[in-house]
Design brief:
By secondary structure, this protein is α+β, with helices and mostly antiparallel strands. The protein has three domains: 5-226, no CATH class; 245-596, C8orf32 fold; 658-760, no CATH class. Helices cover 44% and strands 13% of the residues. The protein is elongated, with a radius of gyration of 37 Å. The chain crosses the membrane at residues 27-45, 57-75, 82-109, 129-149, 156-173, 179-197, 209-227. Residues 601-615 have a biased composition (Polar residues). Residues 453-523 form the Transglutaminase-like domain. Keywords: Membrane, Transmembrane, Transmembrane helix.
Length: 769
Amino acid sequence: MSTDASSRTGERTVAIDTDGTVDAARWLALGCVLALTASYVSVLYGVTQVVGGSRSLVAIVGLSLAAATVLAGLIRPRTAAAVAATGAGVGFAYYFTSAGVELGVVLTATDQLVSDTVALATGLPLLRMVQAGTWTLGFAPAPVFLSWYLAVRGRYAASVVPGGAALCFLVLTGDAGTLATLTGTLAAVGAVAFGELRRRGGSIAQADLLAVLLAVTVALSLSVSVVPGEPRGPTHLIQGEPGSLEATIDSAPQRSGISGQVDLSPEVRFTVESDEPSYWRTGVYDRFTGDEWVRTGQDRRYDGQLARPPGGGDTVTQTVTAETELGIMPVAAQPVDLGGEVTRRTTVSRHGQPRPETPLQPGDSYTVESAIVDPSPAALRSAGTDYPDRISDAYLQTPEDTSSAFDDRVDVITADADTPYDKAVAIEDYLESTKEYSLEVSQPSGNVAEKYLLEMEAGYCVYFATTMTQMLREEGVPARYVTGYTTGQRVDDDTYVVRGLDAHSWVEAYFPDHGWVRFDPTPGGTRSDVHTDRLRDARANGNEDADTDESADVPIDGNDSGRDEGPRPSDGTDPFDGNETEPNDPSDAPEQRNDTDPGGNATNDTDGPETSFNGPTVDDGDDRSWLERLSAVARESVALGVVALVGLAAGARRTGAVARLRREVGVYWHGSRGDPDSDAERAFERLERLLARQYRPRRRSESARAYLTALSEAADEGEPPTDPRLERVLEAYERATYGGGVDRADADAAIAVVDDLARERLPVIGRRE
């Protein structure tokens, strides 16, 4: 049975025909709205692929679309807007409660929500939020529901608004890439375009308007880089050369990249005076995206308080002096107190790592008091798995697309390990013994940890530490990725010179009642040999920046720039194979140092939802030649230029500027000549426009001769008489239009008269309207 149905959409009604089908323009408009929705949902999906919750997101989006389809014929737009607002409220209430805010406080947390929103809109990526997954699930339903509801009701232009706003917001956070942005932009323009075509019965009269919209929206979508945010350049090690290991691991305050081939700089970065050798930590990262590390949480100004380890412990004091411009503050973990003038402009991350607000200058120094906890392997084996929720929630994350093959391989490696500590030792030993150390690697696509474990044979510290961190997490052991420097070269009993070639990354695993314990799966011997060779070469080449006054005469030995020679957990046995070992032999038994969780003190875990500051883009290991990169930029510039030209042309046509310009040019230039009669007629049209400027336009009821006669009779005594040459142009026009035509000479004479009048009597400047 055929039926007729219609739904009210403002001033017009969208009718469904008796066959239950709609016109092609409607389907295309609906398809464009879906494409717009897919553009920003894909960005949210990418976030949930990292932090978890992609299935929930898909379910929420599907339910929102279904609800919008059903309710489109049942409720009015105002009611639909209220439903969307309610859904957003419920979603963000869930976000707040997941972040640890009490339900009663959620209802009055408007200031916090506004603060989070403003922070995100000024360039803070979603992946920096501690509760990124719940925020994403709370954000998605409202724009999806409202956009599709309006589209089903035929209000295509209005349906673009909520979806476009959602995409724009994700562009501002930096999460929406070029592809998603342009796809959403084009889809939005297409929705408006096909909606207009349907409303006008398929007319393409509005094509110029749509072209203008396209150009404007593309321009806006590509202009988001001007939105205020954090610096988009290296801000950690200011002097880290592009392509160096330092530039890769410390390329941003909140991100640590995974690159391809890297180099080592032999130049001195800082010196340390300390009673104990250590690794000098500069960054802690907890969220793995598959191809980089992200530090979540919000920085706070250093107020003289840093959390102490759960089990207490002895302390060691270091004095660090910058030898070059530094955007980092190296410390021995776990710092519990900072001293010096630079601490007045120091922030502390959620993980207890300090960082200067402005770069340290050569000669700047500060003191650090660090808690050194040295539990024995027996103590770590008995630590158990009673992890605090804040630890297990933050440090067990793995990307959702991690393959089962990765999990299977980890299970095999740790098959004989009964405790988290034994698993960590087994993984550390496996990577040390089966993977080679090399700075010359190609960055794999996809999940770097997975590719390194299953496919690659060599890599440098970034690959070793990343893979071990993810392997531990697969086994349920909280772990995090850490960057910094190894001990450096000892030049005195308590003085160490640290160079760029000492840049390093390692792993920290969490043990209840002890905190964070360091593991380093990178083969120490090979790494030390490579670094020693680089330093020897630098000295041989006369690189003055490779030494300080104290280190210049100190011989290089195999331990320089290598592993920390300090204490580590040991009960006199190798926990992996049971053989007797010397506790301080750096070639045996895994080296570890207890770096205790700053979150052990609740003051380091914020009580509310946490957003964080956006970091600059990391080096992506782009190995393309400069010519290829230039070609890519040129292609993009050409594409943008074409869009701009199309937009300008369409805008000019839409505003009538093209027609006005054509008429303006036509007054002074006759153009190409052809048929004499046509030329005579065009000459009179030019004359008519000249006279309209000085006197008045020709009326519809006036003939050409009557028009000229009326102008002559209306001339005042003070005005010059009508030029007699006008008669020649009029006669040529009348013969061409009503008589037997004109010859080439008469047509050329009429053209010449108008040319002369345009130059002599009626200049554009000062003309009288």
